[in-house]
Amino acid sequence: MTATLPTIGHLIDGKIVNGGTRQQDVFNPATGKVEKRLQLADLATVDAAIASAHAAYPAWRATPPLKRARVMSNLKVLLEQNADKIATLITAEHGKVLPDAMGELQRGIENVEYASYAPELLKGEHSRNVGPNIDSWSEFQPLGVTAGITPFNFPAMVPLWMWPMAIACGNTFILKPSERDPSSALLIAQLALEAGLPPGVLNVVNGDKETVDALLTDTRIFAVSFVGSTPIAEYVYSTGSAHGKRVQALGGAKNHAVVMPDADIANAVSAMMGAAYGSCGERCMAVPLIVAIGDEVADAMITGLKTEIAKMKVGPGTDVSNDMGPLVTQPHFEKVKAYVDQGVAEGADLIVDGRGVSIPGHEQGYFLGPCLFDNVKPGMVIYQEEIFGPVLGIVRAQNLQQAMDMINAHEYGNGTCIFTRDGEAARYFTDNILVGMVGVNVPLPVPVAYHSFGGWKRSLFGDLHAYGPDAVRFYTKRKTITQRWPSAGVREGAMFSFPSNR
Ligand code: NAD
Q: Residues with catalytic annotation?
């Protein structure tokens, strides 16, 4: 029966091609139906993609940065023109509500916009007369063939964190999107060709571990960007590094929001609703934990959250009146539900139970309603592990220091935020918290495209963060040139001491 379904192939050398004998179902999470079949690349297919990127590199490297940047400007326009189509694909495969899909795409477009500043970003550094008649400058040269491996939860945005900057810097690229929702990334890559990208500069291979391993070990690839769960991030980092590649591997998260006694509680409640339940909690910057300072704050937050949760609409993402869609797949739905069961078994108080939600007409969809726990404690599994679903827990703490000690002891350090009216407390928090992205009265402090994105601790393996200025460093190699043009007839004798301006 699934044989008649559309199949999704790969983009290699500017063409959509078939490749690989293995296939995987792509579901619509709102209906639970298989809608498409994805071809999983075999080694020959991955090799063809790498060979294409390798062959395209010399000409692309030699293309003036302004011409490379123009492709990004053209792409920005095409992405805006095709935004509805792309968002519809995201919702059909991921499940998130359409306005949220549009939001992710917009943030992706901003990365394309940043990549269009490449000529300015690649100007390098120049110093005249570092010694007598000697000038010195640093250039940022491309690496060669680069690759990116991306997660399901931002199927359009996360690939756009990677390849526009890699390509604008003069590299060629191979993208391996998530096998759960691959279509939007493939469509965007086709739009890049329409925008003027020469064939082979960007290739897309769909696949699973076999594809990833081939990319991590091939000697023609110089750098790998990864975003996904922490165990795979660690694996990608160690395997890629062991094969001589530059790797940045962004992993999972468990973000805490601290609510201080002086906070504007109504504001904190509405901020937390979106941060905890937006995109069904399937965001690495989602906030699944509130650390309330004092019982009064905890009780007030719970009262406010219960009122707001009662107003939430859960249903298919195609209905724009819905606030929250389904989880991405049946196994993920089962996993999140099992965490809720475990929280109950561990002794946390389940105040709002989203299990057993059924959406008329979508009974086979992977819908879980919003869940709210009180009295979550650091020793519990639902405190420690990333759930990646619509499950929010309240942790009760006595004071700010206790909250910060908890956050600093956690294995993840992606994002955090504090709600307060106290500038001194906010400054102490931002100075001393061991987390990469921090919000003050901002629940999802996702940096804009001209800053860089990344967590600390086990939320990121590697040194450089994603996109923004760090991406220029990640996707280029510094070369420093020191040059002298002696005046005619002036010859210096041999110099045996180390050259200096002494
Ligand atoms: P995942 O780790 O399962 O998959 C990510 C990518 O790795 C996919 O392309 C997948 O095909 C590939 N992969 C999966 N298993 C592999 C294996 N054994 N060997 C090699 N490759 C493998 O992640 P996911 O479920 O798609 O995404 C959700 C996770 O991503 C969450 O943990 C979330 O926190 C994280 N995430 C992190 C960030 C960040 O910036 N830190 C952003 C978005 C998502």
A: 284
